[in-house]
Design a protein that fits this description.
alpha/beta, Glycerol-3-phosphate (1)-acyltransferase, six-stranded mixed sheet, 1-acyl-sn-glycerol-3-phosphate acyltransferase, acyltransferase activity
Length: about 300
């Protein structure tokens, strides 16, 4: 009874802190980023990018604190943990909720370079957050339908060109590039609509991952295949967190080498495209098995 009565207070405390921290640090990131527009000198831009990145890490610590504000969350992290801030990584992760971003921030802010996400173009219009992400050189991906491309062929490959430009900027500062390969959050409805062959996952989209490896494969020190599981599969993780009911978070981290067979021209080389799709589908089969194993452990 008391736990239920406390839910509104936990909700207010958690949400207020998260929004306030995001607003304050976001504004600071934007202010630091303004000289990048006014002074288009590469060395100066890199300096201000480093400062903006430091503020981004402060935000990461703030979001990590969100998990401890109103409930003692237990972290169950399995797998590799020997990671370093001064290296380059690419993360492939499943996507259940926007809480996934906070989970990856919690993992990154201590022993990894700060992450960069491939974001939907619509997010650039979100107050503070959109401009802050733009300042941090995060790629905003605008996907076009087949009909739109048929009407205007010049749209073909626009999102790929955006990825190309942003990945070039990532070469100057240690970075963790994050790709939610499913392309959207998992829901039972989407799972059914896509006729997913996986039990707990949507089919992965290989193009973005393949292209990031093509652009930066020689610089990535490793691929981090990260699997995130929340105990309650029926309740929104967002509501669980805000209401103080998110007690456990399960994370599996597997470090993979960036081998030469993973670097190629996904668009032009049909043989490589088929090989890469097979590789990422195999990774998704393993990820599906990991989720099944963790869920069995939770049930017991």
């Amino acid at each position: 009874m008391l736990t239920t009565l406390l839910i509104p207070f936990r909700f207010i405390i958690t949400l207020t802190f998260a929004l306030s921290a995001t607003a304050i640090i976001g504004v600071l990131v934007i202010l630091v980023g303004l000289p990048k527009l006014l002074l288009p000198i590469p060395s100066v831009q890199r300096m201000f990018s480093t400062w903006a990145n430091a503020l981004f890490r402060v935000w990461g610590y703030a979001m990590s604190l969100v998990f401890r504000l109103t409930q003692p969350i237990r972290w169950h992290i399995e797998g590799d943990s020997e990671l370093h801030r001064d290296r380059w990584y690419m993360i492939m992760a499943n996507h259940r909720s926007w809480i996934d971003i906070l989970v990856l921030m919690h993992l990154s802010c201590r022993n990894m370079p700060m992450p960069r996400f491939f974001l939907k173009h619509q997010l650039i219009w979100v107050p503070i957050v959109g401009l802050g992400c733009w300042t941090l050189d995060m790629p905003f991906m605008k996907r076009y339908s087949r009909d739109a491309i048929a009407k205007n062929p010049s749209l073909q490959g626009k999102d790929i060109e955006t990825t190309r430009r942003k990945c070039q900027k990532f070469r100057h500062i240690p970075t963790t590039v994050i790709n939610f390969c499913e392309g959207t959050r998992f829901t039972p409805e989407k799972h059914a609509q896509r006729a997913s062959p996986f039990t707990h996952l949507l089919p992965p989209k290989a193009g973005g991952t393949a292209f990031a490896l093509q652009m930066m494969g020689d610089q990535f020190d490793a691929i981090l295949d990260i699997t995130i599981v929340y105990p309650d599969d029926k309740t929104s993780p967002v509501w669980q967190l805000l209401s103080g009911r998110l007690r456990d978070i399960y994370v599996d981290v597997e470090t993979l080498p960036v081998t030469q067979d993973l670097i190629g021209d996904y668009l032009a080389d049909a043989t490589f495209k088929e090989h890469f799709q097979q590789w990422i589908n195999q990774r998704w089969l393993r990820k599906d098995e990991i989720i099944t194993r963790i869920r069995k452990k939770i049930a017991n």
